[in-house]
């Protein structure tokens, strides 16, 4: 494994990495997972500041425990300092943290906070979810697909549900890696034009087939189906739940959809809203559901990112 292949300054958005860099991260993550002892001093003496503007279970715990497994130290910063940019400027937050930390992990409401941190920090910044992207999740998901299918390049992946940070990251990473990707969202709930055109450009470079449809019956044959909550963190008050439930009901991922598409794997980033975007029976189906493998791979994927950014 050559760390040169994963040579990047920050981990902010999926389209900022090329295919070789993502493939190197997947390979490194699987190596750390298989041989954790080899890396148990990789972050010795290094400290990581973790800013969370939003709630978190998997991201918080997988970063904290993953950093400990690499011999480093993680500091959790919750909302005691308020929303980024309110008590002090994002630029000052970044410059202050850079005095102490070797890297900054941040979960923020607005992508521009992540961009501001990266612009002004003198240490690497990792996006732990914002309104536009969730790259740590997408990395874990492609590690999981690599483990479940013998050849990632032949996998057909579909995302069914709300066009959000998770679907943006997945479609950008799929297009970069050359993985065929079908995005199925109810009309009016798809991604932005900018996100669609970035994905189409990446897919045309890699040769991947990217399809966007609002017709669930047009989903076609798939190997894996992915879904996420219909209302994301921060959107709870902006969206009318009754309207969402009515619009999204035909888009529930359940055993019937798995049968129609022929998919053998179902994925979810969690937290799941059972009986909304996914049926409880499918979420709990140990033959089809890889949701806890995805959750575990969050830790190994992030470890690969941290080792690439910080290891001497
Ligand atoms: N789209 C969800 C992902 C949670 C991990 C959200 O932003 O709330």
Description:
The chain has 312 residues and is α/β, with parallel strands linked by helices. The protein has two domains: 14-134 and 298-310, 3-Layer(aba) Sandwich (Rossmann fold); 137-294, Rossmann fold, CATH 3.40.50.1370. Helices cover 41% and strands 13% of the residues. The protein has eleven helices and nine strands. Strand 1 (47-52), helix 2 and strand 2 form a beta-alpha-beta unit. The longest helix has 20 residues, at 291-310. Norvaline is lined by residues 129, 164-166, 228-229, 232-233, 269.
Task: Describe the structure in brief.
The protein is α/β, with parallel strands linked by helices and 312 residues long. It contains 11 helices and 9 strands.
Reported by name, the CATH topology of the largest domain is: Rossmann fold
Q: Please estimate the helix content.
A: 40-55%
Strand order of the largest sheet: 7-6-5-8-9
Give the ordered list of helices and strands.
Answer: HEHEHEHEHEHEHEEHHEHH
Distance between the termini: 15 Å
Task: Specify Rg, calculated over alpha carbons.
Answer: 19 Å
Tell me, what is the CATH class of the largest domain? Alpha Beta
Annotation, overall tally of beta strands: 9
Give the number of helices: 11
Secondary-structure-based class equals alpha/beta
Low-confidence stretches: none
Percentage of residues in DSSP E strands? 5-15%
Tell me the name of the CATH homologous superfamily of the largest domain: Aspartate/ornithine carbamoyltransferase
